[in-house]
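REVIEWER CHECKLIST
Item 1: Sequence provided? yes
Item 2: Single chain? yes
Item 3: Sequence as submitted:
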Amino acid sequence: MNNNIQIADIIDQTVVSEAHICVPETCLSKLNTTQNKLTILCQNIRSTNANFTGFELLLKRINFLPNIIALTECWLSVKDAPFLNNYSTFSTKNLNNRSEGVAVYITNSLLCTSYEPTVDGANCMVTIIDNEIAIVAIYRSPSYSSSADHETFRRSLEQILTPLDKFKHIIVTGDININICQNSKDKYASKYLDLVASFGLLPAHIFPTRKRACLDHVFIKSKSPSTTLVVENTLTDHSATILSLTLKVRSTSASKKVTKINYDTLGTQLRATNFSKMYQLNCNDCASYFVRTLGELVKSSTNTIVLPRRKIILKPWITPGLVRCMRNRNAMHRNLKNNPDNPIIKETYRRYRNFCNTIIKKAKIIYDRTELQKVSKTNPKKTWEIIKSVTNYKTTPPQSLELLHLCSTPVSSVSKVNNNFANVGKSLARNITVPSNVNTQPEVQFSTTSFFLFPTSDSEVLSIVRVNDLKSNCAVGWDGIPSEVLKIHKHLLVPHITHICNLCFSEGIFPDVFKKAIVIPIHKTGSKNIPENNRPISLLTAISKILEKLLISG
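Item 4: Structure as written out by the authors:
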């Protein structure tokens, strides 16, 4: 009997991951980013409304973007989960008290689904990736402390894990508020550990995450190698946890890559290029030749620059002085960790932390106010962009990846969606009914077989390129030629564009090369795998916009 108890104790203390305690700046050195990794970060945030800016700074400090972020104790009854760039957001809706809520952020590159199961005495979000990986993020409030509360929680957790038992990889993470540290005196820890172990889940770490207790858990069921980090930070009194699992998933680069066009090199190449051949071709071939030639020159003049991590800006309002202040605060926090019973160190850290947090908040408020004052009277669009940024109201449409699975292959699926978008105009026109009492015959008869356009001139095309109608910050079309190229080298390119436009007018042809576009489906409502429930957004080429404006004004 004693041997069985001893074996059970050994199992309870077993971890299945390489585990470390570290600070945010050393996280990247502990993880091997050269392999395929699934990274999951979990942090008790104690109100996203109050601490989300601090959490964004924490993300900058760890120097890479996790695939999945789980935030617990979000206070979602006060305000919805805020927006985070490059992530889709999922959050719990069933809240029992003011402080509850779990928000899960998933990188847009991952094809996955998330749902909220019913849990007694806790909040939970389950994320499924590729029908092989199940990630369970949980927040359990410390207010549920009775034996009955613990019993109902374990029963609910069992109901969640039972249908997930078939998955190859299972991860359970979150702030559970049950101390599973070695030699823990928590009387509910043993039954809780027995339950998760019955599903093959073992702890990835047993380090303290809040004072001397391990309340923020990571459990794994997987044969893949993994690394777990307990990341000490001052966002709340809970440390963050990061699990890195070796799996074939698309990871996010820690460095920032920027593509830049060398306009001096491009100008030299344009002057050396002979465009005389295009003046001997018909409209379609002429436009195609010009776009292809210019596109190749732009591509050869474009360089990809990897910004060093030290040059990636944390936030525009974070000054070098604030960075030093935060580093001092973090050093004092580590000193307090090593001397938790020293009242002088504790009080000194508390005062300095409050001072640091206050000046960070003031710096952000002053920056936002200054930015609003700059544009409030001249640029309403920019004003609303700043307001949405300050209030975390920004949204990015999620990728409609479900449309790739409509048919047996992605190519046939894309063709089906494209066919629907191409014929939506005809379908709507057929459904329009004209009342019988309306005279459909015009009073004046016009020719419907032809029309006439005066030839355009270099000055007219130049005026279109110069004005703000041809915006520099628009997305680039399929040809890879940004409108900024046309603006900077307008005197070299405008005569060729004028010739193409006049050919279009004289031959009555809109070139095929200008009819092509990158079509992005934006989900509107209903099921995401139905093409009709998506709105097509077309990214047109910059040169085609010039021709369109000439036709409109023509």
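Item 5: Key structural point noted by reviewer: The chain has 15 helices and 17 strands.
Item 6: Recommendation: ____
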